[in-house]
Description:
Layout: E1 2-7, E2 24-29, E3 32-36, H1 42-51, E4 61-63, H2 69-72, H3 75-81, E5 86-90, E6 99-100, E7 106-107, H4 114-119, E8 122-126, E9 131-134, E10 137-139, E11 168-172, E12 177-181, H5 188-199, E13 203-209, H6 217-226, E14 230-234, H7 239-249, E15 253-255, E16 261-263
Parallel strand pairs: 3-4, 4-5, 5-8, 12-13, 13-14, 14-15
Antiparallel strand pairs: 1-2, 1-16, 2-3, 6-7, 9-10, 10-11, 11-12
Helix pairs in contact: 1-3, 6-7
Amino acid sequence: MKVTVLYENHAGFRKGLLGGHGFSALVEHRGLRVLVDTGTEGNVLLNNMRALGVEPDLIDYLFITHGHYDHTGGMKALLQVRSKPLKVIAHPGIFQRRIALKPRRREIGIPFTREELEELGAEFVLSEKPFEFADGFVSSGEIERITWDRAVGYFPDGRKDPVRDDMALIIDLGDSTAVITGCGHSGVVNIVRHAEKVGGKLVGALIGGLHLIGAHKELLEDIVKNVRASLYAGHCTGLEAFAYLRCRLGEGVEPIHVGKIIEF
C-alpha cells in the first residue's frame, strides 16, 4: 500500500508543491486509487496533483471523512477536470449546515450543494454503517465514542455539533490495517478501537489530522498508553501535541507534509 499526501498545512521538500490549511491523501492499494478528502482550495489540490503526477481520471473513489470545508473545498475543482463520474463514499450527514463562532461567526460546512456536485459527476454512496466499498477498503461508518472526542462547531440554531459524520478509511494490509482520518473528531482512541472492531485486526498505522490542538496532558497520555499504532500526524494535530507525542513515543510518531509518501 502506498499513501501520498496531496494537501496539508505544510508543503514538502520538493519544488512546486503548495501547502494550505486542509487535508487530502491518495491511497494506492490492490490496483485501486482512493482519494481521501480534497483539502480547502481546488487550485492548491490540482497544483499538487500535477506536481506529484496524479491523474484525476485515474482516481477510482473519493472518500470524504466529514463535511467540513477544509476537507471538501476541492471537490468541485476535482470533478470539473475529470472526464467521467466519480463515486463518493461518505456519511449521510455531510451536507448539514454548520458554523464556527470564533474568531467570528462563519460557515464551516461543505461549500457546495449536493445537487451542483452531482451535476458535475459525483455519485454519492452515503452510509452511516461500516461497509467494504472496494477490495481492501472499508468505510468505518459512524465511529462509536466510548471515551473523549474532539468535536467542534455548532449548528445554526446554536446546538453544539457532535460531528457524527466523522468517519475513517480502514485499509486491509493482511496481518493488520492502516487507518486514515481527516481530523480525528471522534477521538484518536475511539477511532483505533472502532477500526479494530470493524476490521477484526490490529491497527498498525493511523494517518491524518488528530485534532489535538489545545489538548490537555492527560488526554495526550491516554493516547500514549492506549494506542500502539504508528502515528503519521499533521493538519489539526497541533505543534505542541505533536512534540509531546514525539517525545513520549519517539519514532512511532512522524509528521506529514505535502509530497510525503508512506508505504507498507
